[in-house]
Design a protein that fits this description.
293 residues, alpha/beta, single chain, 16% strand
Length: 293
Amino acid sequence: MNDLAAVVDVHPSAADAIPGLHPTLRAGKVNLLGPFEVPGLQPRLVRLYLPKEYRRQEEPRLVLYMFDGQNMFDDAPSFSGGWHIDEAVERLARTRRPVPVVVGIDHAGPRRIRELSPFPFEGEPGQIESLLDWLTGELMPALAAELHLATGPLGAIVGGSSMGGLAALYAHFRHPEAFGGALSMSPSLWIGQRAIFQWIAAQPLPPVSRIYLDCGAREGRGSVLPMVAAMAALLSDRGYDADRLVWRPDPRGVHNEASWRRRLPKALRFLYGPGETGAPSARSGGVIPRPRV
């Protein structure tokens, strides 16, 4: 798949480029869109997977937005192999769960840590607000209108790993009106001297929320797992039960795509599985239940 350097036409905005795009997109394939200008950040590609049985005229489709789009699909653009998330979401159909559209948002290479960070890093401020402003204010509305996607927290989940896992957790609490859940694998909770703990503790509980957290026991010589376990405990103390939160320590997990790819199917089954509202339904959006407070 082509990378950013191979794409010469930079679209000024997703809102200008996406309308009318639907007839050119292929279901069952990863479609490469952009690159798009992102105010305050570098231009980037968006990788869009439409499920094999996607039809524009059907009821609104659920959406999974993933950071680090280069890693989400095939092996070529990824540092150490892709997640093959397109294959993973298709397997949901066998379990009678809805199959979401997947939107992978590419990172900006050397600036990745800063643009995915909510907190200062190495003396520079985090830039995630600029990325989330563009994502929620421009890309999501444009895709929803063009592809008949569900909007609001019952329609969208945000996910990622490492810095993307931190960004997903932050995005869910920062924009509960847009994201009803977070897939957070091996999140970099140490950024900003673990500032995410105090920040989340001070936030109102999202009215719609389901969170998947995991970490490998072999990450950071065992230093990362206790931090993620502490985040799971914080959420549990705030009222998240087993229907709203899965915390999965992985005894053989390391900090790489192979571990995240292996754990992905279980994460998806939880996030798109039944909750208190009953069996999931793309029509009703009843995938993510309301947390107790």
